[in-house]
Predict the structure.
Amino acid sequence: MRVSISYPPIESAKGVPLLAQNRQFQYFNEPTYIYPVIPAYAATLLDKSGYDVTWDDAIAERLTLEEYLKRQDFQSPDLIAIETKAPTVKTFWRYIKQFKERWPHTAIALMGDHVTAFPEESLENSPVDYVIAGGDYDFQLLSLANHISKGTPLDPGFWWKEKDGTMRNTGVYQQNNDVNTLPLIDRDLTKWWLYVKNGNFKYEPGTYTMVGRDCWWRNGGGCTFCSWTMTYKKYQVRTPESLLEEVEMLHKRYGIREIFDDTGTFPAGAWLTEFCKGMVERDLAFKIRIGCNMRFGALKEDDYRLMGKAGFRFILYGLESANQKTLDRLQKGTTNQQAWETCQWATKFGMDPHLTIMMGYPWETYEDARNTVEFAKKLFSAGYAETLQATIVIPYPGTMLWHQCKENGWLLTEDYDRYDMREAVMKSSLTREQVKELTQDLYRVFLTPKYMARKVISIRSADDLAFARRGVRYIYGHLKDFAKGSEMRTFSPQ
Ligand code: SF4
């Protein structure tokens, strides 16, 4: 049986969709391709179970729709599995109609956070064969392939339509599989070379891992805006030893020099200590740099000391807002004091904190948003943050924030195509001009003599120089975006 793990091409004037492995969908003008780690596990697991798997990320391969269709004509898969998010689901409904007309005997499955929240909707609006609700697409796709080829029962979490139009499902997905039974991702099968460059990698080639699913904050309950809280209701993590093995293999076999582990929040406590010690004992520290998502206030100064020794570099923190009332409403569970202290420790031990902030909360005033900008600027001026990304907050359908929007009448539109961070889709007291002014102001921290001087002083190697050059290119790219008058503001100089 042939299975295609697919990202069909999306041709849009808005840019390249950052669809895979991303909790907050957006189009990027500067193409960025993130390794779709869970689908890569799926490809590996299916391959090891004897299925004939093809990796068809037409977005990263920059294929046209025509080229993608011709490739599938040639490969003739029995099953095509497609990951989607809210802003692409309508496009994929149209594609699936076309695909089913062209390949009537090929089963098509949709997966992802959006269809997990609303599985019936895709069955109503497209001739899709299966909708997978739940985030373990790897185990779930194996269950589906076994079902189609051998007639075994499906795991919970599957939705489909009978011939008479009746919808059926196998119940709520339980996330009961043991992630430690998964094989290491087959990087050749999943075309690792497509994903080695990324604005956030200082040392190339870089790659992604994902040791946990997905976030331990509130035991999977998470923040109100986080779309992946729908797909992973509890936190599961592989052993530190298995990640060390993967890091070593990536370094030795593929020459990888930087890894970003995209677990929603990287494991803390004894797990982290063991991993850091293992990096040193295996002589991997600084030969390969590690990045991860972390929460403010989750770790102590000693943890950062250890991470510094283990070669951690890029640490992504969700600042989101500097207003406690907003952090509380988002169930973020952090404070500005924790943010300050955390960034101070991370930089003290050689790491580069990256901040993500959001604007356009329905309850925030212009003064609140300005307060966030000023706080972020202060962190930069103190040298406690290296890079940042600012976006418009989007209430992804199915999240707690989206339900709050429905209850309070905050939604300006329910057209999913517009949930792509190019515009505000929630009512907000901020005007477009104010968002532009605030984000430009924030962006100026990269143009201050102090920041530039710090950057120049920190150049010690060819990697540093190349990274700084890429940063300048990103800054000019964003300046061009501003000139075009686009509403969305996302910027990260590296
Ligand atoms: S801490 Fe980050 S990954 Fe975890 S729920 Fe909040 S936004 Fe999502």
Remarks:
- The longest helix spans residues 462-484.
